[in-house]
Amino acid sequence: MASVLSPPLPRTFRLPVSGRYLGGRLLTGLVAVWGAITLVFFALYSTGNPALLLVPPDAPPDEVERLTRVLGFDRPIPEQYVTFLGTVLTGRFPDSIRYGENPLPIALEKVPASLALGATGLLIGTLLGGLIGYWSATARSSWLRRGPLGVAVAFESVPTFFIGILLVLVFAVNLGWFPATNGRGLPGLVLPAVTLALAFIPAIARVFRTALLDVLQAEHIRTARAKGLPHHLLVRRHVVANALGTTLNVVGIQAGVMLGGAVVTESVFGWPGIGQLSINAVQNRDYPLVIVCVLVIAAGFVLINLLVDVLAALVEPRLRS
C-alpha cells in the first residue's frame, strides 16, 4: 500500500534572538536613557542660573529676578525635575532657551551629519582594524604581525583632539589638500573621518586578532589542517567567519558611541553635527537643548547596539543563546 506523502510544512520566520531578549534589552535601554537624562539634568541645573546669560550685563537685579521667575528657575531643583518629566511624558520638551522652540527637532536636524561622520569613520576603522588584526594573527612575517598593531596601539594613547589638529596642520594648512574647518561634502569629511577612525582601529584590531588566535586553536581547525586544507582557504572559510561574532560586538560598542564620541572631533573640525550642537548648548547654558542632545545620543547608543547584537547573532549562531 503506497504511503501518502504529506506536503512539507511552510517554514516560519524566526528572529535570530528571542522576543524576551529584545524586550529586555529595550527595557534596559529605556532605564539607561532615563538615568543619563536624570544625571545630566541635576548636573546642569546645579551649575547656576541660565537667565543671567539672557539679559544684558548691566541689567538691573529686578529684571534678572523677573526672567528667572518666568523661566521657572526660582523653584527647587527637584520640583523643576518633576515638572520636566511631566512635560516630557506629554511628548514635548521644554523650549530651548536660545531658540525659543522645541529642542527635539533642532537636535534631530543635526543627526544626519553626525551619522555620516560616524559611519564613515567606523567603516574606515573597521576595515583597517580588521586588516591589522588579520595580519597580526595570520601573517608569516614577524614585521606584519607586530608592526601595524604596534602603530595602532600607539595612536590609541594620543588624544583625539591632538590627532585632529595634527592632521589639519599637515593636510589642510601645509599641503592644502582638504579644508581645515567647516568643510562640506566629501573633501570636508575626509580629515574628521580619519581622525575618528584612528580611535576605532586599536580596539577592533586587538579583539579580532584575539578571536582569530582562539579559533585557530580549535579542534575542528586542527583537524582541517591535518587533512591538508591549504592555509589561506582554512583561514578565509573557517577561521574568519567564526571570529566575526565577537568582533561585531566590539564594533557595536564603537558604533554606539559614534554619535557622542565624535563631540571632540566635530569641535576641532567645525562639523555641523549633534556633538558641536551639544557643546554650543553647554556654553550657552541652554539646558533643555543639552538634555535633548543627551537623549538623542543615548537612544542612538541603545538602538545601534541592539541592531549590532542581532547582526552578530546572524553571523555567529552560538551567540543566539
From TrEMBL:
<keyword id="KW-0812">Transmembrane</keyword>
<dbReference type="Pfam" id="PF19300">
    <property type="entry name" value="BPD_transp_1_N"/>
</dbReference>
<dbReference type="InterPro" id="IPR000515">
    <property type="entry name" value="MetI-like"/>
</dbReference>
<feature type="transmembrane region" description="Helical">
    <location>
        <begin position="289"/>
        <end position="315"/>
    </location>
</feature>
<feature type="transmembrane region" description="Helical">
    <location>
        <begin position="149"/>
        <end position="177"/>
    </location>
</feature>
<keyword id="KW-1133">Transmembrane helix</keyword>
<comment type="similarity">
    <text>Belongs to the binding-protein-dependent transport system permease family.</text>
</comment>
<feature type="transmembrane region" description="Helical">
    <location>
        <begin position="113"/>
        <end position="137"/>
    </location>
</feature>
<dbReference type="InterPro" id="IPR045621">
    <property type="entry name" value="BPD_transp_1_N"/>
</dbReference>
<feature type="transmembrane region" description="Helical">
    <location>
        <begin position="21"/>
        <end position="45"/>
    </location>
</feature>
<dbReference type="InterPro" id="IPR035906">
    <property type="entry name" value="MetI-like_sf"/>
</dbReference>
<protein>
    <submittedName>
        <fullName>Peptide/nickel transport system permease protein</fullName>
    </submittedName>
</protein>
<dbReference type="GO" id="GO:0005886">
    <property type="term" value="C:plasma membrane"/>
</dbReference>
<keyword id="KW-0813">Transport</keyword>
<dbReference type="Pfam" id="PF00528">
    <property type="entry name" value="BPD_transp_1"/>
</dbReference>
<feature type="domain" description="ABC transmembrane type-1">
    <location>
        <begin position="111"/>
        <end position="308"/>
    </location>
</feature>
<keyword id="KW-1003">Cell membrane</keyword>
<keyword id="KW-0472">Membrane</keyword>
<dbReference type="GO" id="GO:0071916">
    <property type="term" value="F:dipeptide transmembrane transporter activity"/>
</dbReference>
<feature type="transmembrane region" description="Helical">
    <location>
        <begin position="189"/>
        <end position="208"/>
    </location>
</feature>
